[in-house]
């Protein structure tokens, strides 16, 4: 021991003494050394330290750096010594030396109380805990993951030791690592950590720390506080925990220069990011990253972008935008409506749960963009949009109504409709957009994996080209696939399975199934995982291999097996299974496997019947037993077509394990050629007009069996030209399977050419599979409906009175009636009237019968009870047939007025606001209960406004204005705009509307300056005679003239009292005659006849 250690050791002893007496002794011991340690030995150490007995502490030996290397200290259980670095002792502070000695004592304690070395650097954990320091979870995990064991050579002996790490204090530390790979822990305080060389782990802990990774590949975690981090050279990874942040974080790390995190940290030269974000709407752009990175967005609507590594992006809560960049990535949107883009690279193909890559939408209505690379897209819950982008993608929309676009490349779609109980119909006959019927929409998909439900489904995927897999579930399903090597499993129900091209496996499952292999070789692979072929399963199934070398397995029950529809160049394998099976080697028109070669026996195309049972099964042939030969070959029998003359007999089947067959036995069934159907032809109607909507329909009818489709030929003749005078038609028609009729429709082409009537003649022609029943031509006629007459349409203008006229009825006139019906369209449009407020907006089509000169258009007029200026709208003619539109008369104007003009005596009907008398006759005008404007003409008029607030204009002539008590009151007074003094007169009616005498007295009151009509009336009733001193009240059956000279009611008024004394607001008259002509009488009495009748 060197003298420099002498002042250090008492400090170490004090730490151990205090630790032994602390309440946390046993808990901290468990943190450092686990819970399985020797309690007895630990108790002994505690008691020794409590009594300040430290004799058990191993001796300390100081070694050179050549021996210890980069370590500051070490402990060897084999020598029970603590070793310290000489250079460390010469340069380190006392606190650092105490820390290293405590760490090595921790290794010593572990060796005493545990039989197996504790995981990680238990000495460093012990040193922190005995000094009263706490370790956060990240630091504790890092120390437990560390391997602190190594070997040194002392005096030629190899000694295994546990060496000290670089661990700071709770103060401000400056720790520099070595050129090797170091673990450096700053703990609390504002620390400066330098990794130098090696692959280092730097943990800043609490405080505002500075971390410099140095060279090579480092891991840097600044911990809490505002940290400054420099990855240095190499591929460095930064850990940032911002999960407690609630405000938005913005980080733009688009190159490896210095960037500030927005949460106080500054970093640069970082290649990989591990980041936990908070609950704000964060913008995290790390496209400069090149190492595999991991970012979790937390809450909020986040934007997250990473670079070229194999990255994990998890948006978590909120509506997030995730962009992965290059590399093989995993992107998860989490909750919310997310936008996810995989970027370049293959985002998928690893299917173990811990490491699988791809784009995952999670909950919410998400948008996933695979972009470049072979990607996997999983929409999850919600109504998602999946775009595969380029290359070969796997797309699974998940639950919800999803919109899926495979993009370019060979893309596969997974659909799980297994929970559906209603029938599903999908018709995917090309790669354009199709709707699934369950809410999903997809296009540009080459392969399908589909689990269907329990309904009777119609699943047509003949546009598929990749290997596909469809399971029909329950129900009687129709399933068709395209050219890939496909798996079709009908499952329950009576299913129809069509495989298309490729090497396929078709399984009918339960039920009576119809199975067709289509083109391609459906067979030849016999391992269970990959074997192909047609499998009937349970039920009475029908299997047809169609083209290619096929394997057919009927399964249980009574099945029908047909290896081909032709058989040339094919070798099919047929195994009926249990039940009564039928093997079809011919139908009524054709014997299969006959290659037509007259020089060879056809041994390269035939069917193998593997399990023919003479008791239960039947082989179907065409013709009779004499048409065939049997030849035993070993344990099998070959079946040949008996060819005539020198032509070799044609091999069509090998029947395994049968050597005693007879062609005349009942297990051979022979079918004969069917009676061909007879075809008849008729047309209805026999003629149509060229421009009409009715077409000539030629109906073809067949007799007999209608099971299969049938094509019938015919010729097309006549004076009409196919494709010119009518829409082009072919020269054959096809009866659908199960249908006894087929039709050809002649749709005439409309034109304006005046021509002769033209004919279309169809004649049945010879063909395959039918006879001709109608031998004569069948003629239909297209009648000419064009004319040389030129007709022109015009429409009139009209004025309607709102409230009086319910409709505007306009007349359309034909200047030259046509022998053909004329049709045209019309539409309304506003000028200053408001559609559907002032009138009802309308469009329509009208037909004017042949030789007719007019038609009418009726537009409803709407009443709004408002007194307003005239309003107008138009009615425009368009698209005439058999006529033209007058360029000067094709638009009719409708004027809507509130004023009824009349040259007769009129009383306004309800809902009409105004009345104007025209002409010079002596006529009268009477208003309604509304607020009316009534205007007289040039004659002598009687004008009565009636109830309401009316405006009355007499015009020329000596006019009489009639007022009824109770109708022009203080609350609803009328106005005469042009009362001519000494010419016009006022005639009064009782409240009941009967004639009465003029007022018994009439005077002019003093001018007034009041501001309200109520005050004016009160003043007049108080003093009606302005020429007499004192107040002269307005008596019964009296009238007064008064002028207001100032204010808002300035003007001239008549106040007339009825036979009741005093003012009665609901009966006495107040008439505004502002605008009078002539000279007002002087104050005082006025002759009654000057104003009144």
Automatic annotation (TrEMBL):
It is found in: Secreted. One of its GO terms (molecular function) is calcium ion binding. It comes from the Bacteria. Residues 669-765, 778-878 form the Calx-beta domain. GO terms for cellular component: extracellular region; membrane. InterPro entries: Bluetail_dom, CalX-like_sf, Calx_beta, Hemolysin-typ_Ca-bd_CS, Hemolysn_Ca-bd, RTX_toxin/Mannuronan_C5-epim, Serralysin-like_metalloprot_C. PROSITE patterns: HEMOLYSIN_CALCIUM. Residues 555-568 have a biased composition (Polar residues). Residues 323-348, 368-402, 498-523, 539-569 are annotated as: Disordered. One of its GO terms (biological process) is cell communication. Keywords: Calcium, Repeat, Secreted, Signal. This is Calx-beta domain-containing protein. It comes from Microcystis aeruginosa NIES-298.
């Amino acid at each position: 021991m060197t003298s420099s250690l002498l002042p250090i050791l008492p400090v170490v002893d004090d730490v151990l003494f205090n630790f032994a007496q602390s309440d946390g002794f046993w808990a901290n011991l468990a943190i450092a050394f686990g819970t399985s340690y020797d309690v007895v030995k630990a108790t002994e150490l505690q008691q020794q330290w409590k009594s300040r007995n430290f004799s058990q502490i191993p001796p300390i030996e100081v070694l050179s750096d050549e021996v210890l290397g980069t370590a500051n200290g070490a402990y060897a259980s084999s020598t029970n010594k603590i070793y310290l670095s000489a250079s460390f002792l010469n340069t380190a502070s006392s606190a650092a030396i105490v820390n290293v000695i405590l760490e090595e004592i921790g290794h010593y304690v572990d060796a005493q109380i545990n039989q197996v070395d504790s995981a990680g650097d238990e000495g460093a954990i012990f040193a922190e805990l005995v000094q009263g320091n706490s370790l956060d979870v990240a630091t504790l995990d890092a120390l437990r993951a560390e391997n602190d064991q190594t070997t040194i050579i002392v005096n030629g002996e190899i000694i295994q030791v546990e060496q000290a790490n670089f661990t700071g204090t709770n103060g401000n530390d400056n720790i520099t690592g070595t050129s090797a790979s170091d673990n450096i822990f700053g703990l609390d305080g504002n620390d400066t950590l330098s990794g130098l060389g090696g692959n280092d782990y730097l943990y800043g802990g609490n405080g505002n720390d500075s971390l410099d990774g140095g060279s090579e590949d480092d891991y840097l975690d600044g911990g809490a506080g505002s940290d400054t981090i420099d990855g240095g050279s190499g591929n460095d990874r930064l850990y940032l925990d911002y999960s407690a942040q609630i405000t938005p974080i913005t980080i733009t790390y688009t190159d490896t220069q210095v960037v500030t995190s927005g949460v106080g940290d500054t970093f640069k030269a970082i290649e990989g990011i591990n980041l936990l974000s908070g609950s704000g709407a964060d913008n995290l752009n790390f496209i400069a990253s090149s190492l595999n990175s991991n970012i979790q967005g937390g809450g909020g609507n986040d934007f997250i972008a990473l670079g070229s590594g194999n990255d994990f992006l998890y948006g978590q809560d909120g509506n997030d935008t995730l962009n992965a960049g290059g590399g093989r990535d995993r992107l998860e949107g989490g909750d919310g409506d997310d936008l996810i883009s995989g970027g370049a690279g293959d985002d998928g193909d690893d299917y173990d749960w811990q490491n699988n890559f791809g784009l995952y939408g999670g909950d919410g209505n998400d948008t996933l963009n695979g972009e470049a690379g072979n990607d996997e897209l999983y929409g999850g819950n919600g109504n998602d949009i999946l775009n595969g982008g380029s290359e070969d993608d796997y797309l699974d929309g998940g639950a919800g109504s999803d919109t899926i676009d495979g993009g370019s490349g060979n893309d596969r779609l997974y659909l799980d409709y297994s929970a559906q109980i209603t029938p599903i119909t999908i018709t995917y006959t090309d790669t354009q957009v199709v709707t699934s019927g369950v809410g999903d929409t997809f296009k540009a998909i080459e392969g399908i994996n589909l689990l269907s439900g329990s309904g009777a489904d119609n699943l047509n995927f003949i546009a598929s080209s990749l290997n596909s897999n469809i399971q029909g579930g329950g129900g009687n399903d129709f399933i068709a696939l395209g050219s890939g090597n496909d798996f079709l499993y009908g499952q329950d129900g009576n299913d129809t399975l069509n495989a298309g091209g490729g090497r396929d496996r078709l399984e009918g499952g339960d039920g009576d199934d119809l199975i067709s292999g289509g083109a391609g070789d459906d067979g030849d692979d016999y391992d269970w995982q990959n074997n192909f072929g047609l499998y009937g399963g349970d039920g009475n199934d029908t299997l047809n291999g169609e083209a290619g070398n096929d394997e057919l397995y009927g399964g249980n029950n009574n099945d029908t097996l047909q290896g081909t529809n032709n058989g040339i160049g094919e070798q099919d394998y047929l195994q009926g299974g249990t039940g009564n099976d039928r093997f079809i080697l011919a139908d009524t028109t054709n014997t299969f496997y006959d290659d037509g070669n007259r020089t060879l026996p056809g041994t390269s195309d035939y069917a193998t019947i593997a399990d023919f049972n003479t008791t239960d099964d039947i082989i179907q042939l065409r013709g009779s037993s004499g048409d065939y030969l049997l030849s035993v070959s070993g344990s099998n029998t070959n079946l040949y077509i008996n060819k005539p003359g020198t032509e070799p007999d044609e091999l069509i089947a090998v029947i395994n394990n049968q050597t005693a067959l007879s062609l005349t036995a009942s297990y051979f069934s022979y079918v004969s050629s069917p009676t061909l159907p007879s075809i008849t032809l008729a047309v209805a109607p026999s003629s149509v007009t060229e421009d009409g909507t009715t077409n000539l329909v030629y109906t073809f009818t067949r007799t007999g069996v209608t099971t299969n489709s049938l094509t019938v030929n015919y010729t097309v003749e006549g004076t009409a030209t196919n494709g010119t005078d009518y829409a082009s038609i072919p020269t054959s028609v096809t009866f659908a399977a199960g249908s006894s009729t087929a039709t050809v429709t002649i749709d005439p082409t409309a034109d304006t050419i005046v021509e002769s009537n033209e004919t279309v003649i169809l004649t049945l022609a010879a063909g395959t599979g039918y006879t001709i029943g109608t031998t004569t031509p069948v003629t239909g006629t297209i009648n000419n409906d064009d004319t040389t007459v030129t007709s022109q349409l015009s429409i009139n203008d009209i004025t309607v009175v709102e409230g009086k006229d319910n409709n505007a009825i306009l007349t359309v006139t034909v200047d030259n009636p046509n022998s053909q019906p004329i049709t045209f369209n019309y539409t309304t449009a506003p000028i200053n009237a408001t559609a559907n407020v002032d009138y009802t907006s309308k469009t329509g089509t009208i037909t004017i019968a042949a030789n007719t000169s007019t038609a009418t258009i009726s537009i409803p007029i709407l009443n709004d009870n408002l007194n307003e200026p005239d309003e107008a709208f138009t009615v425009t003619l368009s698209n005439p047939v058999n006529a033209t539109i007058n360029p000067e008369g094709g638009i009719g104007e409708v004027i809507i007025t509130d004023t009824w003009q009349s040259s007769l005596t009129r009383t306004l009907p309800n809902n009409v606001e105004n009345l104007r008398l025209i002409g010079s006759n002596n006529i009268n005008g009477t208003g309604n209960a509304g607020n009316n404007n009534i205007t007289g003409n040039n004659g002598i008029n009687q004008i009565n406004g009636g109830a309401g607030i009316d405006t009355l204009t007499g015009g020329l002539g000596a006019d009489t204005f009639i007022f009824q008590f109770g109708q022009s009151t203080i609350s609803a007074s009328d106005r005469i705009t042009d009362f001519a003094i000494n010419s016009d007169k006022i005639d009064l009616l009782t409240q009941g509307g009967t004639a009465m005498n003029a007022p018994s007295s009439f005077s002019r009151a003093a001018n007034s300056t009041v501001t309200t009509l109520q005050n004016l009336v009160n003043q007049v009733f108080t003093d009606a005679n302005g020429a007499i001193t004192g107040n002269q009240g307005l008596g019964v059956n009296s009238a007064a003239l008064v002028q207001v000279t100032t204010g808002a009611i300035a003007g001239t008024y008549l106040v007339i009292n009825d036979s009741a004394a005093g003012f009665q607001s609901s009966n006495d008259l107040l008439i505004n005659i502002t605008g009078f002509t002539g000279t007002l009488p002087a104050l005082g009495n006025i002759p009654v006849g000057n104003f009144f009748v």
